[in-house]
User: Fold this.
Amino acid sequence: MLIQIIVTIGVILFVFPSILSSYKKKSMTPFGAILWIVFWIAGLTLVWFPHLIDAIGSKLGVGRSIDAFVYIAIVYLLYLSLNQRIKMNEIKKDITTLNRSLALKDIKKEDK
Assistant:
């Protein structure tokens, strides 16, 4: 019971304000903000009603229900890591292209 209260307080005090702040700064779309809020509410629901995990795990055919969530979480985190790596590489390419363009402009200015 204590862990449920601690997790709920943590989500209410830290996660939700962070989502709202990101949305207000326009670093998150309305769809993204709603998606994250729904995700965290679903997580809190599972924290408060852990028997739902058993029902979901049995539908997925996993012996221990929590294992299904661990597997899903690992796959999701690896997917996020891959996405971030791809975006970082795209940003690096954009920065390189921009630097080359600026360098060529500087050279053209010096030639004149």
In short: DSSP finds four helices and no strands in the chain. The radius of gyration is 22 Å. The chain has two domains: 1-49, 51-112.
